[in-house]
Amino acid sequence: MKKMKKVIKNNFPHIQTQIFKKIMVCKRIVILGDGNRFALLLCQKALTYLGYPCEIPVYLGSEEEIIDQFHLKEDDLVIIVSLHETYDDFCTNRSVFYQNANYLDVKIKPKIGFIGVAPKDNHLYFNYNINQESFDKSMNELQVFFLNLVQYILYKSGI
User: Distance (Å, rounded) from C-alpha 57 to C-alpha 63?
Assistant: First the structure.
């Protein structure tokens, strides 16, 4: 078991470890965006089982409506997943599409994390850049990120 923990501890890239530490202090997690829903649902189940309330809403509307519906607070985390956009592009494109949206960079209470193309600025709670070479590589990196997160939580919880 000690050997296994050592392997897990040394297996995570430093940036992932920093992000995982931030995620672990959040009370609730909501994952939004265009990642593969089935892959994300497995991670949601794992996080929920480990005691981290986590929701992946299936919705037909703007993410701002979701944030209002879930009554998110300062100790909650919204993870936006975009396999083909930067955070700024994500916000701009949805602002244009929904026309009346202020998109997420305006005074919202929850922390915002972003997984996708590296954003131009770093006002986010965290950002994690995934490979953009192909959809398959992007999905693979996204799945590895969430699986590593689950392993990290197990490791830190002493399980």
Answer: 10
